[in-house]
Amino acid sequence: MLLKILQILVFNIIFLSTIYLAFKKAKQIYSNIQLGKAMKKDGSTNERIKNVLLIAFGQQKMFQNILPAILHFCIYVAFIITQIELIEIFIDGAIGSHRLLYHTFDDNHIFHFLYVGTISFIEILSVLAFIATIAFLSRRNLLKLPRFTKPELKGWPTKDANLILLFEIYLIACIFSMNIADQAMHIQEHGEGYGFLISGMIAPALSHLSYTLLHVWERIGWWGHIIGVFGFMLYLPHSKHLHILLAFPNTYFAKLTPKGQLSNLEAVTKEIKIMMNPDTAFAAPTEADATPVKFGAKDVFDLNQKHLLDAYTCTECGRCTSACPANQTGKKLSPRKIMMDTRDRLEEVGKNIQANGGQFVDDQKSLLSYITVEELRACTTCNACVQECPVLINPLDIIMELRRHLILEESNSPEEWNGMFSNIENNSAPWQFSQQDRLKWEEN
Amino acid sequence: MEKIKTVAEMAANGETPEILFWVGCAGSFDARAIKITRAFTKILQHLNINFAVLGKEEGCTGDPAKRAGNEFAYQMAAHTNIEILNAYEIKKIVTTCPHCFNILKNEYPELGGQYEVVHHATYLQELIDAGKIKIQGGGSFKGKRITFHDSCYLGRANDIYEAPREVLAILDAELVEMKKSKKNGMCCGAGGAQMFKEDEPGDARINAVRTEQALEVNPDIIAAACPFCMTMLSDGVTAKDKQKEVRVFDLAELIAHGQGLDSIL
Ligand code: SF4
Ligand code: SF4
Questions:
Q1: In chain A, what residues touch B60 (CB-CB under 8 Å)?
Q2: Spatial CA neighbour of B8 closest among B51, B41, B54, B45
């Protein structure tokens, strides 16, 4: 009895502190994203919902490559469906019951059938997820796929990826220990197990073990699992695995206009209008003009909220980078690194704000301390990265904002580009040809 | 080639063209791209299509400036162009350049330039579908292998993958796809204003890699639908010293040849 109360106590303490910490972190991520400028939402809500269903839920983009897609899907479905079992586990933990749902409806055969069916289904998925996890671990560590060995993955990102896979195995092991031992106990008490498909096949072989041993085993599995889940909740915000949550809003907010369409820089449109209008061109600046306009982005504050949500959503899978023509030809540019840098800088800014009582204190750094000009210059704006991303991230948009800053705010541009700009301005062609000669092609 | 009308000349007679052929800077000045411009013009003239060009009144759309990050130079160029296009009440624009196509179609509207914009791949396909372009006997491409290189600004940027292929399908050639094509097609390396500067340090040139991918399928002809891809791929083929065996042509040139309006083979 004492042990039971102790368990309830421990569970609730861990549970509440986890929820508290997870909420705190979630709030922080939310306010970090809010540091960006408001995003423009175009297109219809229906189309956005369709994207969420197809691309986030249905993982449509993963299915470009069928085998990894299926494996990933197994892990994903196992994860989702396990949440059903988790509800019961949470209640059991909070009030000290044991398989509360099963026993509440003790005489209801239909309910028991559904219950056993669900758990069996979870077990099958768990086995599939286990196979998938092993496959992914070997793909990363034995096959060494090029996109998993790029420089931006050195250190933490590689550890993160492996850790989460090992963690998956740990969770599956806990679930099975719990179910097997529990059923072996059930056999001793009632002559038969619950009837869970996979653990049910193994349990009879263990039913000769002492009840106490089985009970301890079951508790280890149960506690191991639940502590794992809590750990996961706290670990998630620091990991690339945040995508399991953020893929949903991210696909919802993804742009619906053609990929080739870059945003219009309104600030420039305004300036040009003023310039073109003789009444305003030479007028004294009004108050509204007093706030200096910034063109493009130098730091995370200048990006929009979708860019920042993108950064948190990135799974670091590197599909973008392996499709990037610049990266394939040995240039420094890697669209994945653009996303990872944006997230790292955003986290840094968030911590800075927290440490300084809600105010950002200049740290002499910016996003451009992470991303070099050389990287930005190499982009061909080909949209291959955008096309590839399974969760509708747009690295090109961030690259473009940074490029705008370099040119418009720092006049940082290669000589040849300066020539091209002045040609466009002076003779309406990127080369030094006279506009008067634009019909010369007719003469041959 | 008959004399080409300019919109200004037509306006002087109180006419507006049904279609404005937007030639683009490459199409106006680049020696290789001029051939594409001429081939496409011949097709239009042959079909008696009511079209005109802006001629001296056309200016760069601003695409390379915008992609380089110089929104200012872009919007200045766009404003000038939009003023002219709107003054002439242009409704429909056809262009042989995917970069002009993309920017006119997608980015000019926000600055007040709303037109129906069509790339010549789509336009040719529509003419074929309407039965206006017929190629007798397939146009002497018998036994030739053609592979089509997707331009990023036509393909991924605007999801146009089938039109150019349907255009090529009326030639009696064998169409072969590169390993990376359509959505997965690799860039030629010119976009994003790369055309106008040296490459960043790396271990290969993008056009060289893309050309190798094309040569892998042993084509006689690499078909393109963009004057910049044309430059990149032609350079790539020449760098491999294959220019005798493998030729790079634009869709318009292939169709003009098939119709006996041009002789390229
Ligand atoms: S758009 Fe730029 S970053 Fe993205 S794949 Fe193309 S070259 Fe690479
Ligand atoms: S941006 Fe998308 S494709 Fe690239 S690493 Fe992140 S999740 Fe993968």
A1: 424, 428-430
A2: B54
